[in-house]
Amino acid sequence: GGPRPRYEVVRELGAEEVRWFYREDRKTWKPFIGYDSLRIERAFRALGPAGEGEAAAVEPVCVRSGLYEVDVASAESYPVYWNQTEKIPVMRGQWFIDGTWQPLEEEESNLIEQEHLNRFKGQQLQESFDMEVSKPVDGKEAIHSLKLSRNHVDWHSVDEVYLYSDATTSKIARTVTQKLGFSKASSSGTRLHRGYVEEATLEDKPPQTSHIVFVVHGIGQKMDQGRIIKNTAMMRDTARKVEEKYFSNLATHVEFLPVEWRSKLTLDGDTVDSITPDKVRGLRDMLNSSAMDIMYYTSPLYRDELVKGLQQELNRLYTLFCSRNPEFEEKGGKVSIVSHSLGCVITYDIMTGWNPVRLYEQLLQKEEEELEDRWMSYEEQRLLEELYITKQRLREIEERLHGLKASTISKPPVLKFKVENFFCMGSPLAVFLALRGIRPGNSGSQDHILPRTICNRLLNIFHPTDPVAYRLEPLILKHYSNISPVQIHWYNTANPLPYEHMKPSFLNPTKEATSAPDSDSASAAPSPTTSPVMVRRHYGESITNIGKASILGAASIGKGLGGMLFSRFGRSSTTPQTLETGKDGAEGEDKKATTVGTPPLPHSSSGFLEPTVELEHRIDFELREGLVESRYWSAVTSHTAYWSSLDIALFLLTFMYKQDQEETDKSNLDTI
């Protein structure tokens, strides 16, 4: 808004001179931007004097880029897209403290304003704000005073107003300083200003949202339901800082919305709680609310409830956002998803429509094929044929029924929007996919695990010591287990190399591509199931491995239907062994499961790759480790360290703004 113009005579404050504030987490008061403040003030004035009149007649005011609303009558603000128990108080600022421009409490402010108007309304003001600031008040006596409960206010002139504390200690200090020759005003008074430092204008407005990011939590939210809201707020604030520094010239804006899907679910009620022993209760509760979610997800009984919970919340938020921002879809607004931990697996399953039943059908088919190959008696053969015919007939009836249903109602898409980018953070998705039988192929396309028609770009972000994170690239091309993930640039790197220009490099440039003998090198590389995200290091490793073991264990535990499927499907027909085959069995299984042999890697002494099959786009991105963080400590905390990272905020925005920019350039070219 710039410095506000001063009126020549004292009159009531204009709506543009008043500034509204809000306070979160009992911190300091923060000013609303001009656009918000002006609209709140207009609603406040529509209420009538001292908030009388029809409260219902005044609509709530939409503020802070549309994420919150202000109820002027109750002087409270609340979020639009999520639930929050703590209300956010708002305050009308008329008188402000010099220097900080923090507002005086509303009650005092109203009394001072009333007194000021009674005494000085219609009087001439000094000509310029600068002159008024530079004039010393030393030695001037007050021309008017007002006593408040713990303070008093002195007017030394119309424009020179000071607030004094009447606490005993400050009285002593004031007497001493006055005896030493300091004036009363400058010794302990606080200079006050009437009206805010900047004039509120409707032009001081947030840019329009062109891209929304749904932030999906993972495991452990039962323990602290508000955590995803706090985490998203951290990510939003960090992204705002990055936007101001690197993308301030753009007229668009990326908005982050939390998706809180867990607290609405009942699941088993409190059965698990009731069977939990009391000793080390705190630790058990933590495990119940974290590892337990993975067990719920692998249980056929609860899996659907978790999937539906997240799917419905995503669709609810999108519908609500579009109803409040009608231009978003018209202008081609985009949607990305950032998921954390188990949230990545559930989001992936919603997008792809994966279901354990599909796996079960494939398993049955496989068993039928195995039956055909072995010798059987005439009676057995006859019964088997009868079973086949009955199954065939059942399938036909199901298809006809399905056809009838489809003609009457067209099935709505699972999600009401197309996903532009799917960012996984600290994600165990690769382990789930490997346990479902996905094995590396020989084309470098993302389609191998997530078709581009469903989601334009998949990006997997992890901290090198995160015990829950796994790499995705070796599931597409096996030799990528020997290629290091892309290093995410530090936030303050000057002129970083664009990610698409970064060459792949080996994890151990000095060694051979694999440490196994040449004859064996194709199958000796670790399977994506077991290969950790980081190069093997001696520090913090035990903690990271314990974490990985628990994820692997939990992911394959729900033995019921889910567990049997995970452990049986995708294994060679010659060895129908279960998951607990021990080390040798697992390695042997690995060799059989890899259908496409990968030749030894061509590599140069520089550690960069010579041309071979490469990924169309890199998927695995690794945060650079801090230079001073304790290795063990980072293994414990790294799983939740993503939310406030400036490096990640810059990474996310780089990809989203780059796509928007490319499309704008393309449409401009088309116009030309």
Automatic annotation (TrEMBL):
SMART domains: DDHD (SM01127). One of its GO terms (molecular function) is phospholipase activity. Residues 502-534, 572-608 are annotated as: Disordered. Residues 513-532 have a biased composition (Low complexity). Residues 581-593 have a biased composition (Basic and acidic residues). Pfam families: DDHD, WWE_2. One of its GO terms (cellular component) is cytoplasm. Residues 415-658 form the DDHD domain. Coiled coil: none annotated. Belongs to the PA-PLA1 family. This is DDHD1 Phospholipase. It comes from Campylorhamphus procurvoides.
